[in-house]
Amino acid sequence: MLERNKTRQIRVGNVVMGGDSPITIQTMTNTNTADTLATIEQIEDIYKAGGELVRVAVPDEDAVKGLREITKASPVPVIADIHFHHELALKAIDQGVAKVRINPGNLGGKEKLLQVAEKAGENGVALRIGVNAASLEKDILQGYQGDSPSALVKSAVRHVHYLEKFGFYNMVISLKASDAPATFQAYSLLAREVDYPLHIGVTEAGPYYRGTVKSAVGIGSLLMAGLGDTVRVSLTASPVEEVKTARLILQAAGARVFGPELISCPTCGRCEIDVPNLAAKVEALIASKEYPWKIAVMGCVVNGPGEARNSHLGVTGTPRQGIIFKHGEIIRRVPRESLLEALQEELSNLESAESGI
Protein backbone atom coordinates (compact mmCIF):
# COMPACT_ATOMS: atom_id res chain seq x y z
CA MET A 1 0.00 0.00 0.00
CA LEU A 2 1.00 3.60 -0.55
CA GLU A 3 2.57 5.61 2.25
CA ARG A 4 0.07 8.31 3.15
CA ASN A 5 0.42 11.79 4.49
CA LYS A 6 -0.49 11.59 8.18
CA THR A 7 -3.71 13.38 9.10
CA ARG A 8 -5.69 13.52 12.31
CA GLN A 9 -8.61 11.14 12.73
CA ILE A 10 -12.19 12.25 12.91
CA ARG A 11 -15.44 10.32 13.00
CA VAL A 12 -18.33 10.65 10.57
CA GLY A 13 -21.10 8.58 12.09
CA ASN A 14 -19.62 5.08 12.41
CA VAL A 15 -16.89 5.77 9.84
CA VAL A 16 -13.41 6.76 10.99
CA MET A 17 -11.65 9.09 8.58
CA GLY A 18 -8.01 10.10 8.50
CA GLY A 19 -4.95 8.68 10.17
CA ASP A 20 -4.37 5.05 9.23
CA SER A 21 -8.03 4.33 8.44
CA PRO A 22 -8.90 3.24 4.88
CA ILE A 23 -9.56 5.93 2.30
CA THR A 24 -13.34 6.06 2.14
CA ILE A 25 -15.49 6.25 -0.98
CA GLN A 26 -18.41 8.62 -1.13
CA THR A 27 -20.82 9.94 -3.69
CA MET A 28 -23.92 12.12 -3.87
CA THR A 29 -27.48 11.13 -4.64
CA ASN A 30 -29.12 12.73 -7.67
CA THR A 31 -32.68 12.20 -6.44
CA ASN A 32 -34.93 14.91 -5.05
CA THR A 33 -34.13 14.58 -1.35
CA ALA A 34 -37.75 15.45 -0.52
CA ASP A 35 -38.65 12.16 -2.23
CA THR A 36 -37.48 10.07 0.70
CA LEU A 37 -38.35 6.69 -0.81
CA ALA A 38 -36.41 7.33 -4.04
CA THR A 39 -33.48 8.72 -2.08
CA ILE A 40 -33.34 5.74 0.28
CA GLU A 41 -33.55 3.32 -2.64
CA GLN A 42 -30.65 5.05 -4.38
CA ILE A 43 -28.59 5.04 -1.19
CA GLU A 44 -29.14 1.27 -0.98
CA ASP A 45 -27.83 0.92 -4.55
CA ILE A 46 -24.83 3.08 -3.67
CA TYR A 47 -24.10 0.93 -0.62
CA LYS A 48 -24.32 -2.30 -2.63
CA ALA A 49 -21.86 -0.86 -5.15
CA GLY A 50 -19.34 -0.12 -2.38
CA GLY A 51 -20.19 3.43 -1.29
CA GLU A 52 -19.23 4.14 2.31
CA LEU A 53 -20.59 7.67 2.76
CA VAL A 54 -23.38 9.42 0.90
CA ARG A 55 -24.21 13.10 0.47
CA VAL A 56 -27.69 14.45 -0.20
CA ALA A 57 -28.67 17.88 -1.43
CA VAL A 58 -30.56 20.04 1.07
CA PRO A 59 -31.68 23.10 -0.91
CA ASP A 60 -34.92 23.84 0.96
CA GLU A 61 -37.25 23.00 3.84
CA ASP A 62 -38.88 20.13 1.94
CA ALA A 63 -35.52 18.40 1.73
CA VAL A 64 -34.96 18.86 5.47
CA LYS A 65 -38.24 17.16 6.34
CA GLY A 66 -37.16 13.82 4.92
CA LEU A 67 -33.71 13.73 6.48
CA ARG A 68 -34.73 11.98 9.69
CA GLU A 69 -36.23 9.06 7.78
CA ILE A 70 -33.31 8.96 5.35
CA THR A 71 -30.64 8.93 8.06
CA LYS A 72 -32.42 6.16 9.97
CA ALA A 73 -32.83 3.97 6.89
CA SER A 74 -29.40 4.57 5.36
CA PRO A 75 -26.80 1.80 5.73
CA VAL A 76 -24.04 4.45 5.52
CA PRO A 77 -23.55 7.84 7.20
CA VAL A 78 -25.49 10.65 5.52
CA ILE A 79 -23.96 14.05 4.73
CA ALA A 80 -26.12 17.13 4.19
CA ASP A 81 -24.97 19.34 1.33
CA ILE A 82 -25.71 23.00 2.16
CA HIS A 83 -25.29 26.13 0.10
CA PHE A 84 -26.26 29.71 1.03
CA HIS A 85 -28.72 28.93 3.86
CA HIS A 86 -27.05 28.24 7.19
CA GLU A 87 -30.48 27.69 8.77
CA LEU A 88 -30.83 24.53 6.68
CA ALA A 89 -27.53 23.30 8.08
CA LEU A 90 -28.76 23.81 11.64
CA LYS A 91 -31.99 21.93 10.90
CA ALA A 92 -30.16 19.13 9.10
CA ILE A 93 -28.04 18.54 12.20
CA ASP A 94 -31.22 18.21 14.25
CA GLN A 95 -32.43 15.57 11.78
CA GLY A 96 -29.49 13.28 12.52
CA VAL A 97 -27.00 13.75 9.67
CA ALA A 98 -23.43 12.63 10.39
CA LYS A 99 -21.71 15.47 8.56
CA VAL A 100 -22.57 18.77 6.93
CA ARG A 101 -20.85 20.00 3.80
CA ILE A 102 -20.66 23.77 3.71
CA ASN A 103 -18.90 26.28 1.51
CA PRO A 104 -18.01 29.15 3.84
CA GLY A 105 -17.66 31.43 0.83
CA ASN A 106 -21.41 31.39 0.20
CA LEU A 107 -22.76 30.81 3.71
CA GLY A 108 -23.24 34.47 4.56
CA GLY A 109 -20.36 35.42 6.84
CA LYS A 110 -18.34 34.26 9.84
CA GLU A 111 -21.16 34.53 12.37
CA LYS A 112 -23.33 32.09 10.43
CA LEU A 113 -20.38 29.73 9.98
CA LEU A 114 -19.77 29.80 13.71
CA GLN A 115 -23.43 29.04 14.47
CA VAL A 116 -23.22 25.94 12.30
CA ALA A 117 -19.95 24.87 13.92
CA GLU A 118 -21.33 25.32 17.46
CA LYS A 119 -24.40 23.24 16.60
CA ALA A 120 -22.26 20.58 14.97
CA GLY A 121 -19.95 20.44 17.99
CA GLU A 122 -22.87 19.99 20.38
CA ASN A 123 -24.14 17.04 18.34
CA GLY A 124 -20.88 15.32 17.41
CA VAL A 125 -21.38 16.16 13.75
CA ALA A 126 -18.42 16.71 11.44
CA LEU A 127 -18.13 19.60 8.99
CA ARG A 128 -16.62 19.50 5.55
CA ILE A 129 -15.13 22.86 4.71
CA GLY A 130 -15.54 22.80 0.94
CA VAL A 131 -13.82 25.61 -0.91
CA ASN A 132 -14.72 25.98 -4.57
CA ALA A 133 -12.91 28.07 -7.13
CA ALA A 134 -16.23 29.62 -8.17
CA SER A 135 -17.05 31.09 -4.76
CA LEU A 136 -13.86 32.53 -3.29
CA GLU A 137 -13.99 35.66 -1.17
CA LYS A 138 -13.51 38.91 -3.09
CA ASP A 139 -10.40 40.00 -1.20
CA ILE A 140 -8.69 36.67 -1.92
CA LEU A 141 -9.62 36.82 -5.60
CA GLN A 142 -8.14 40.31 -5.81
CA GLY A 143 -5.05 39.46 -3.80
CA TYR A 144 -4.22 36.36 -5.83
CA GLN A 145 -5.47 37.67 -9.16
CA GLY A 146 -8.05 34.94 -9.57
CA ASP A 147 -8.89 31.45 -8.38
CA SER A 148 -5.35 30.07 -8.31
CA PRO A 149 -4.40 27.04 -6.19
CA SER A 150 -2.83 29.41 -3.67
CA ALA A 151 -6.10 31.34 -3.45
CA LEU A 152 -8.04 28.15 -2.71
CA VAL A 153 -5.61 27.24 0.05
CA LYS A 154 -5.70 30.75 1.52
CA SER A 155 -9.49 30.60 1.74
CA ALA A 156 -9.54 27.15 3.34
CA VAL A 157 -6.86 27.93 5.91
CA ARG A 158 -8.63 31.17 6.84
CA HIS A 159 -11.84 29.33 7.67
CA VAL A 160 -10.02 26.52 9.47
CA HIS A 161 -8.13 28.92 11.71
CA TYR A 162 -11.31 30.82 12.46
CA LEU A 163 -13.11 27.68 13.65
CA GLU A 164 -10.06 26.52 15.62
CA LYS A 165 -10.15 29.80 17.58
CA PHE A 166 -13.56 28.73 18.89
CA GLY A 167 -12.48 25.17 19.68
CA PHE A 168 -13.93 23.34 16.67
CA TYR A 169 -11.67 20.70 15.13
CA ASN A 170 -14.01 18.05 13.71
CA MET A 171 -13.33 19.02 10.10
CA VAL A 172 -12.65 17.58 6.66
CA ILE A 173 -11.23 19.94 4.03
CA SER A 174 -11.79 19.98 0.28
CA LEU A 175 -10.49 22.25 -2.47
CA LYS A 176 -12.40 21.80 -5.70
CA ALA A 177 -11.52 22.88 -9.19
CA SER A 178 -12.46 21.35 -12.52
CA ASP A 179 -8.82 21.38 -13.62
CA ALA A 180 -6.77 18.33 -12.57
CA PRO A 181 -3.32 20.00 -12.40
CA ALA A 182 -4.71 22.92 -10.38
CA THR A 183 -6.45 20.51 -8.04
CA PHE A 184 -3.22 18.58 -7.49
CA GLN A 185 -1.25 21.75 -6.79
CA ALA A 186 -3.88 23.09 -4.39
CA TYR A 187 -4.04 19.94 -2.26
CA SER A 188 -0.26 19.65 -2.23
CA LEU A 189 -0.04 23.17 -0.83
CA LEU A 190 -2.86 22.58 1.66
CA ALA A 191 -1.22 19.45 3.10
CA ARG A 192 1.67 21.64 4.26
CA GLU A 193 -0.70 23.93 6.14
CA VAL A 194 -3.20 21.67 7.92
CA ASP A 195 -3.41 18.10 9.24
CA TYR A 196 -7.14 17.60 8.77
CA PRO A 197 -8.48 14.76 6.59
CA LEU A 198 -8.66 15.71 2.93
CA HIS A 199 -11.67 15.09 0.71
CA ILE A 200 -10.23 14.78 -2.80
CA GLY A 201 -11.74 14.86 -6.26
CA VAL A 202 -11.94 16.88 -9.45
CA THR A 203 -15.24 18.74 -9.48
CA GLU A 204 -17.51 18.80 -12.53
CA ALA A 205 -15.15 16.35 -14.24
CA GLY A 206 -17.56 15.76 -17.11
CA PRO A 207 -19.53 12.93 -18.77
CA TYR A 208 -18.71 9.34 -17.92
CA TYR A 209 -15.77 8.64 -20.24
CA ARG A 210 -14.16 12.09 -20.18
CA GLY A 211 -14.85 12.55 -16.47
CA THR A 212 -13.37 9.16 -15.61
CA VAL A 213 -10.12 10.03 -17.36
CA LYS A 214 -9.89 13.45 -15.71
CA SER A 215 -10.74 11.98 -12.29
CA ALA A 216 -8.20 9.19 -12.68
CA VAL A 217 -5.49 11.75 -13.45
CA GLY A 218 -6.45 14.16 -10.68
CA ILE A 219 -7.35 11.72 -7.91
CA GLY A 220 -4.73 9.18 -8.92
CA SER A 221 -1.91 11.71 -8.79
CA LEU A 222 -2.98 12.84 -5.33
CA LEU A 223 -3.20 9.27 -4.07
CA MET A 224 0.22 8.46 -5.47
CA ALA A 225 1.55 11.49 -3.60
CA GLY A 226 0.08 10.09 -0.37
CA LEU A 227 -2.75 12.61 -0.16
CA GLY A 228 -6.44 11.95 0.42
CA ASP A 229 -8.61 10.44 3.13
CA THR A 230 -11.94 10.29 1.33
CA VAL A 231 -12.74 10.30 -2.41
CA ARG A 232 -15.65 11.42 -4.54
CA VAL A 233 -15.50 10.91 -8.30
CA SER A 234 -17.65 13.63 -9.85
CA LEU A 235 -19.26 12.38 -13.08
CA THR A 236 -22.22 13.40 -15.18
CA ALA A 237 -23.51 9.88 -14.58
CA SER A 238 -25.16 7.67 -12.00
CA PRO A 239 -23.71 7.87 -8.47
CA VAL A 240 -23.32 4.09 -8.62
CA GLU A 241 -20.92 4.58 -11.54
CA GLU A 242 -19.04 7.16 -9.46
CA VAL A 243 -18.54 4.58 -6.73
CA LYS A 244 -17.40 1.88 -9.15
CA THR A 245 -14.95 4.30 -10.77
CA ALA A 246 -13.59 5.40 -7.39
CA ARG A 247 -12.93 1.78 -6.43
CA LEU A 248 -11.00 1.20 -9.64
CA ILE A 249 -8.93 4.37 -9.18
CA LEU A 250 -8.09 3.49 -5.57
CA GLN A 251 -7.04 -0.02 -6.53
CA ALA A 252 -5.03 1.11 -9.56
CA ALA A 253 -3.17 3.60 -7.35
CA GLY A 254 -2.39 0.92 -4.78
CA ALA A 255 -4.43 2.70 -2.12
CA ARG A 256 -6.98 -0.07 -1.48
CA VAL A 257 -7.75 -3.56 -2.73
CA PHE A 258 -11.32 -4.61 -3.46
CA GLY A 259 -10.79 -7.84 -5.39
CA PRO A 260 -8.96 -9.27 -8.40
CA GLU A 261 -7.18 -7.04 -10.88
CA LEU A 262 -7.82 -7.84 -14.53
CA ILE A 263 -4.85 -7.61 -16.87
CA SER A 264 -5.53 -7.82 -20.59
CA CYS A 265 -3.27 -7.10 -23.51
CA PRO A 266 -4.04 -4.65 -26.29
CA THR A 267 -5.15 -6.24 -29.52
CA CYS A 268 -2.65 -6.69 -32.35
CA GLY A 269 -2.14 -8.70 -35.49
CA ARG A 270 -0.80 -11.70 -33.54
CA CYS A 271 -4.08 -12.26 -31.67
CA GLU A 272 -5.80 -15.53 -32.48
CA ILE A 273 -8.75 -14.99 -30.16
CA ASP A 274 -11.30 -12.24 -29.57
CA VAL A 275 -9.49 -10.57 -26.66
CA PRO A 276 -12.07 -7.81 -25.94
CA ASN A 277 -14.94 -10.31 -25.79
CA LEU A 278 -12.97 -12.79 -23.69
CA ALA A 279 -11.77 -10.05 -21.33
CA ALA A 280 -15.35 -8.88 -20.76
CA LYS A 281 -16.45 -12.43 -19.90
CA VAL A 282 -13.51 -12.98 -17.54
CA GLU A 283 -14.18 -9.62 -15.89
CA ALA A 284 -17.76 -10.71 -15.19
CA LEU A 285 -16.47 -14.05 -13.88
CA ILE A 286 -14.19 -12.45 -11.27
CA ALA A 287 -16.47 -9.53 -10.33
CA SER A 288 -17.73 -11.19 -7.14
CA LYS A 289 -14.34 -12.51 -6.02
CA GLU A 290 -12.73 -10.87 -2.99
CA TYR A 291 -9.10 -11.96 -3.12
CA PRO A 292 -6.39 -9.62 -4.51
CA TRP A 293 -5.43 -11.82 -7.45
CA LYS A 294 -4.10 -10.73 -10.80
CA ILE A 295 -6.00 -12.43 -13.63
CA ALA A 296 -4.69 -12.07 -17.18
CA VAL A 297 -6.34 -12.31 -20.57
CA MET A 298 -3.71 -12.51 -23.31
CA GLY A 299 -4.18 -12.75 -27.06
CA CYS A 300 -0.98 -14.55 -28.02
CA VAL A 301 -0.06 -18.13 -27.11
CA VAL A 302 3.62 -17.49 -27.83
CA ASN A 303 4.22 -14.36 -25.74
CA GLY A 304 1.12 -14.16 -23.55
CA PRO A 305 1.99 -16.47 -20.63
CA GLY A 306 5.49 -15.05 -20.28
CA GLU A 307 4.34 -11.45 -20.42
CA ALA A 308 1.80 -12.14 -17.67
CA ARG A 309 4.00 -14.27 -15.43
CA ASN A 310 3.15 -12.10 -12.43
CA SER A 311 -0.52 -13.09 -12.68
CA HIS A 312 -2.07 -15.74 -10.45
CA LEU A 313 -4.04 -17.13 -13.37
CA GLY A 314 -4.34 -16.28 -17.03
CA VAL A 315 -6.00 -17.40 -20.22
CA THR A 316 -5.10 -17.30 -23.88
CA GLY A 317 -5.68 -19.54 -26.84
CA THR A 318 -6.20 -20.23 -30.50
CA PRO A 319 -9.43 -20.57 -32.45
CA ARG A 320 -9.57 -24.23 -31.41
CA GLN A 321 -7.72 -24.45 -28.11
CA GLY A 322 -7.93 -22.63 -24.81
CA ILE A 323 -4.91 -22.37 -22.57
CA ILE A 324 -4.75 -21.62 -18.85
CA PHE A 325 -1.50 -20.56 -17.25
CA LYS A 326 -0.39 -19.87 -13.70
CA HIS A 327 2.48 -17.50 -12.97
CA GLY A 328 3.51 -17.79 -16.61
CA GLU A 329 3.47 -21.59 -16.75
CA ILE A 330 0.85 -23.42 -18.82
CA ILE A 331 -1.19 -25.73 -16.57
CA ARG A 332 -4.13 -26.72 -18.78
CA ARG A 333 -5.11 -27.03 -22.43
CA VAL A 334 -8.82 -27.36 -23.10
CA PRO A 335 -11.20 -27.08 -26.06
CA ARG A 336 -11.77 -23.41 -26.88
CA GLU A 337 -15.45 -23.58 -25.93
CA SER A 338 -14.54 -24.96 -22.48
CA LEU A 339 -12.06 -22.20 -21.56
CA LEU A 340 -14.29 -20.18 -19.23
CA GLU A 341 -15.55 -23.28 -17.48
CA ALA A 342 -11.98 -24.44 -16.91
CA LEU A 343 -10.98 -20.99 -15.64
CA GLN A 344 -13.87 -21.08 -13.17
CA GLU A 345 -12.55 -24.40 -11.86
CA GLU A 346 -9.08 -22.94 -11.38
CA LEU A 347 -10.52 -19.88 -9.64
CA SER A 348 -12.35 -22.22 -7.25
CA ASN A 349 -9.06 -24.01 -6.59
CA LEU A 350 -7.45 -20.67 -5.79
CA GLU A 351 -10.26 -19.79 -3.39
CA SER A 352 -9.91 -23.13 -1.64
CA ALA A 353 -6.19 -22.57 -1.24
CA GLU A 354 -6.73 -19.05 0.11
CA SER A 355 -9.32 -20.18 2.64
CA GLY A 356 -7.34 -23.26 3.66
CA ILE A 357 -10.05 -25.71 2.62
Secondary structure layout plus pairing:
Blueprint (H helix, E strand, L loop, with lengths): L9 E3 L2 E3 L6 E5 L7 H14 L3 E5 L3 H5 L1 H7 L4 E4 L4 H9 L4 E4 L7 H14 L2 E7 L5 H6 L5 H17 L5 E6 L3 H11 L8 E2 L7 H17 L5 E2 L7 H14 L8 E4 L10 H12 L7 E4 L6 H4 L5 E5 L3 E6 L2 E7 L3 H17 L2
Parallel strand pairs: 3-4, 3-10, 4-5, 5-6, 6-7, 7-8, 9-10, 11-12, 12-13
Antiparallel strand pairs: 1-2, 13-14, 14-15
Describe the structure.
Helices cover 41% and strands 19% of the residues. With 357 residues, it is an alpha/beta fold. The protein has two domains: 10-252, Dihydropteroate synthase-like (TIM Barrel, Alpha-Beta Barrel); 261-355, 2-Layer Sandwich (Sulfite Reductase Hemoprotein, domain 1). An eight-stranded parallel β-sheet has the order 8-7-6-5-4-3-10-9. A five-stranded mixed β-sheet has the order 11-12-13-14-15. Helix 12 links the parallel strand 12 (294-297) and strand 13. The mean pLDDT is 90.
The stretches of 5 or more residues where confidence is low (pLDDT under 50) are none
Number of domains: 2
* Largest sheet, spatial ordering of strands: 8-7-6-5-4-3-10-9
Number of helices: 13
Question: What is the radius of gyration computed over CA atoms, rounded to a whole number of angstroms?
Answer: 23 Å
Judging by the overall fold, what is the CATH architecture of the largest domain?
Alpha-Beta Barrel
The portion of residues forming beta strands comes to 15-25%
User: In the CATH hierarchy, what is the superfamily of the largest domain?
Assistant: Dihydropteroate synthase-like
Q: Indicate the structural class.
A: alpha/beta
Spatial gap, N to C terminus: 28 Å
Reading the helices and strands in chain order gives: EEEHEHHEHEHEHHEHEHEHEHEHEEEH
Mean pLDDT: 90
Helical amount among residues, as a percent range?
Answer: 40-55%
